[in-house]
Write a structure and sequence with these properties.
mainly beta; 154 residues
Length: 154
């Protein structure tokens, strides 16, 4: 049974010092001392239009798309400009083999960049009806994403 917390008055001093509940401190948008257990991330259902997939990280850090066309551009919005953030994308082939390009990735409406891969090896989408790739984009200070792919789940 969840407990209800009632707050009658929050003073400026309380806000300046943060709020601590069971050893977890919340101050200035940071959560310190938290132990995450049994959690889930919000998954976005994504689609493409004219070869472009737009991913708004304000809507969650995971997403899924079933390809209906070749993807030539991936645009990320609301990538945090300070610190490290990730987005994991589940890509599923439909009955026709499609391609996914990583050389036209934009971050927060910046210029096109090529996502960096291990040893500069690039990325090629797995083929075959229903093939699934899990692609994780890692951003440091909203810079060029580093890409890691787990491929060919079927």
């Amino acid at each position: 049974m969840a407990s209800e917390i009632k707050v009658d008055t929050i003073s400026e001093n309380t806000l300046a010092n943060g709020i601590t509940i069971d050893g977890v401190n919340i101050k200035d948008g940071a959560v310190v001392g938290a132990l995450l257990k049994d959690y889930a991330e919000t998954k976005q259902s994504l689609s493409s239009s004219s070869g472009v997939v737009t991913i708004d990280m304000a809507n969650g850090n995971t997403g899924a798309i079933t390809l209906t066309e070749n993807i030539s551009d991936i645009d990320f919005l609301n990538v945090p400009t300070s610190g490290v953030s990730t987005f994991t994308l589940q890509i599923t082939q439909d009955s026709t083999d499609r391609t996914v390009a990583i050389n036209a990735v934009t971050v927060n409406a910046g210029s096109d960049v090529t996502a960096k891969t291990t040893a500069g090896g690039g990325y090629t989408m797995s083929t075959g009806s229903g093939a699934i790739d899990l692609v994780t984009f890692l951003f440091v200070d909203a810079g060029t994403p580093l890409l890691n792919a787990l491929q060919n789940f079927s």
